[in-house]
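Per reviewer request, we include the raw input and output of the structure prediction for the construct analysed in the revised manuscript.
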Amino acid sequence: MGPVRDYMRQKEQLRTEQLELIEARTVRDDLSRQIKALGRADVLETRARELGMVRPGEIPYAVRGIAKPAPPPKAPVDESTGVWGFITGFLG
C-alpha cells in the first residue's frame, strides 16, 4: 500500500474509534446516573419491589391465574385511501 492509502485507512480507523469512544462515554454516563439514583431511598425501594422484595413485617402475596390481556384489534384497512386506493381509483 502507498502512503496515501495508509493515511486514509488510519484516518478512517481513528474516526471509527472516536465514535466508539463517544458511545462508551454515553453508556458510562448513563450507568453513573443509575448508580447515583440508587442512593435515593424511593428509587431503591422501587427497584427492590420490582425484584419481589418486601419490607420486614409486610405480607407478600402472589396473584396467579391472571391471563395476559388480549392484543388490541387491528384497524381495518381502507383500500380507498393511500397509494393502493390511488392506483385502483386511477385504473377503475
